[in-house]
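Hi there,

I know you've been waiting on this one. I reran it after we fixed the sequence typo, so this is the corrected version. Both the input and the resulting structure follow.
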Amino acid sequence: MEAGAGMGATEKVAEAAGGAVDAVAEVVRSDAALLEDDLAEFLASLTSPASVPAQSVFEAALRRSLYEPVADAVGSKVGQEALPPTAGAPGGNRAPLRPSMVYWAYRNYRGFPDETGSGGEVGDGSDVSSADLAVVRRAAVAVRVMLKAFVAIDDIQDGSDVRYGEPALHVTHGVPLALNTGSWLIAAVLRHAADPGVVDSLARAVESGFTGQAVDLSTHTPETRAELLAAPLEERVAYWESLAALKTGTLFRMPLDSALAALRVVDDEQYTLDAAMRQLGLASQLFNDLTDFVPEFGGGRIHEDYDGLSNRVFLELLDPESSQPALSGEQLKSYVLGHPELEPTLLSLAAEAVRLKREAKESVYRVCRSDRSAAYFDLTIERKGHLIDRLHETLLQRSGA
C-alpha cells in the first residue's frame, strides 16, 4: 500500500482510502460490538448470576471469592473507556485498542464484509472465512481478558491502588483474592482460546510479560540499582529497551501474534509485524515514562515512584561519575526534577516516541492488503497513538522551540 508524499501518515492513509474512512470506522465499531457480545458470553460462562440465590455454603463462598472478583476484573474500565480519546480522535470511543488489532489482522488477511467470500461476516457463504472468524473472535476475547488478568497482578506488584480512576482489584477484594483472580483468568483464557496456535502464542505472551515484570521489579533491589547507576548510558538504554520490549511490547505483540496464529500468516510478514509491534511498545512506554513529568498528560501528577529505575527519563539523566549508589526516594526526585537537562531530555525522548510510532505504522502499511486495511490499522492505533504526537507538540511549545 503506497500513499502520497508531503503529508503525515494518517493523512496519507485517509487520502489513499478514497474517502472511505467513515465506512472503515463503521467496520471497526461493528467488530468492537462483536467483541462486547462475546465478552459478555464469556463472562456469563465463568460466573453465577447474582440474581440467582446460592444453593449452598460452598456456592456462596465461590461466588464471593471467585465469581465476583472475576466479574469486577473483566468488567472494569481499565484499558477500555477509563481513558477515552479526546474529541476528534480517530476510531471512536468503544473499540478497545488491542482486541481491535486482532480484528485488524482478520480484515487484512480475510477481507471486509462487502468482499463476498473473502472475510465477510459469519454466514457469508465462505466456510473458511466463517471458521477463521470464529477463531479470531475467541482470540480477541482472550486478549482482552488476558490484559485484565495482567493488570490485576501488576497492580499488586507495583503497589498501585488506583488504575485510571478506579480502585485496583486488590483494593476492593484484597491482595490474596486479586492474585488468585488474575492467575485463574489466565488459565480460563487459555482454555477459551482453544486453537492450539493461539494458545501457544498467548502462553508465550504470558512468559514474556512475567519475565519483563521480574526485570522491572529488580530495579527496586539495591544490586540492580547500583549496577544501573554505575553503567554507561548505552547500557542503561539497552536495559530499558529490553525491559520495555518484554512488558509493553508484549502487550502490542500479543494481539497480532494470536491473530496471525489463527490465520496462519506467512513467516516473513510475521517478522515484519513483530518488529513493528516492538517499536509501538517502545513508543508507548516512552509516552508512559514522559507523562510522569507532564501533568497535562499524567493525570495532574508528577512522578511519585522514585524507588525504581525503570523510567527512561531517570536512566537518561543518571551520571555514574557523580551519583551515589544509594540515590533513591527524595534524593532521586530532587536530582531528576532539578537536573538542568531534564527539559531537553523530555523533548528528545518525545521525538523518539513519535519516530518509533511513525516507523512502526509504515512497516505495517507495507503488509496491508488494501487501503481500507491500512485505514483500519490507523484508526485503531491512533485512538491512543495521537496522544504521542500531542505530547511532543506540548513539549515543543513548552521549550519555545
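Quick highlight: The two ends are 34 Å apart (CA to CA).

Best,
R. S.
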